[in-house]
TrEMBL record:
Residue intervals of the MTHFR SAM-binding regulatory domain: 1-210
One Gene Ontology term from the biological process aspect of the record: tetrahydrofolate interconversion
GO cellular component: cytosol
Source species, domain of life: Eukaryota
Pfam families for the chain: MTHFR_C
InterPro entries from the UniProt entry: MTHFR_C
Name of this chain's protein: MTHFR SAM-binding regulatory domain-containing protein
GO MF, one annotated term: methylenetetrahydrofolate reductase [NAD(P)H] activity
Length: 224
């Protein structure tokens, strides 16, 4: 399903094809990309081509009917909301570049980034949960089914990094495929970013306009 990747470019190509729908699963997802992600499929493929390997995402949603065929959930006659959210693997250099972009021009973006060893970076000012999905329904309190916070992120990172082992175990231990996959597992970061302004659906993707390309040759350069 995932071929024999001989470089990080090849690995990025696998993630890119998953976003485009030509590959039906990844170690982090046994199912194809969710229908709600269809509106950002092109943007996801673009950033995966750059080498930012996405494993979770959602687009911004601003007051869509709870009965909407794609984004709707919960009781009838309600409205649902989402903040744009991305979770991906990225090199330490990529983390530095994105953090710089966030500091410079994206004040409403928050992030967590952690490597396999547990070294955590974040710009959040509170350890409390950040609701990224919520719904408003007649006669009910606001419902917040999906939140981002440090404790669950740190618990998830162990499993997220462990899943690389399932992939590189498919190849001989000393093969280029196994070595590249193992290097990502051991040295890259798991990062999530939230655009807290849910009325700015493209903002989270604009972060990658000047981000360095994480390729297997130089791991440098920017998107033209």
């Amino acid at each position: 399903m995932w071929g024999t990747p001989l470089s990080k470019d090849d690995i990025a190509q696998v993630f890119q094809e998953y976003c485009r729908g030509t590959i039906g699963a990844l170690p982090w997802s046994e199912m194809p990309l969710a229908p709600e992600a269809s509106s950002i499929r092109g943007q996801l493929a673009r950033i995966n081509k750059l080498g930012y390997l996405t494993i979770n995402s959602q687009p911004a949603v601003d007051g869509v009917s709870s009965q909407d065929a794609v984004f709707g959930w919960g009781p009838a006659n309600g409205y649902v909301y989402q903040k744009a959210y991305l979770e991906f693997f990225v090199s330490a250099q990529g983390v530095d570049a994105l953090v710089a972009q966030i500091k410079q021009s994206h004040p409403t973006v928050t992030y967590y980034a952690v490597n396999r060893a547990g070294d955590l970076r974040t710009n959040t000012q509170s350890e409390g949960p950040n609701a990224v999905t919520w719904g408003v329904f007649p006669g009910q309190e606001i419902v917040q089914p999906t939140v981002v916070e440090a404790t669950s992120f740190m618990a998830w990172k162990d499993e997220a990094f462990a899943l690389w082992s399932e992939w590189h175990a498919l190849y001989p231990a000393n093969s280029p495929s196994a070595q590249h996959l193992h290097e990502i597992q051991d040295t890259w970061f798991l990062m999530n970013i939230v655009e807290n302004n849910f009325k700015a659906p493209e903002s989270v993707f604009e972060l990658f306009d000047k981000a360095p390309v994480m390729n297997g040759k130089t791991q440098c350069g920017t998107l033209a």
